[in-house]
Amino acid sequence: MATTESFLVPDVPDLDPNTFGPDSGAVALTDPTHDIDGDGVLDTQTFDAGDAVVIASDLDSDGDADHLTMIHEDGAYASWEFRRDGDGVVHWQQTDGGTLGNG
Known about the structure:
There is one protein chain. This protein is mostly beta strands. The protein has one domain (27-99). The protein is 0% helix and 36% strand. The protein contains no helices and 5 strands. The protein has strands at residues 44-49, 52-57, 67-72, 76-84, 90-99. A hairpin with a 5-residue loop joins β4 (76-84) and β5 (90-99). It is globular. The protein starts with 43 loop residues before the first strand and ends with a strand. Residues 1-23 are annotated as: Disordered. Residues 1-102 form the DUF6802 domain. This is DUF6802 domain-containing protein.
C-alpha cells in the first residue's frame, strides 16, 4: 500500500552550478542517500540542478558538503572541496575539471 511518505521528494540544496565558485558559501545536505566511504553513515546526495547533476558529500558529518562534483549536460565537469584557512576564512577550491567524452 502506498503511503504519503512514498511520494516525498528529498530536500535538495539551493545551488546554481552555473554561478558556483570559491565564495559560494556552505552547501547544507539534509537528505543524504548514499554511503560512499562505507562507514555505515549516509553522507552523499545526488540531485539535478538546472542543466547539471550534482554529487555532494558530507564526509565529516557536520551537515554541510565537503566535496561537490557538478556534471553539466554538455559533459563539462568541476569538482570542488570546502576549505577553511588558518585564519578561519572558508571557501571552495576547485580540485578537478574538464570535459567528459569527446567534447
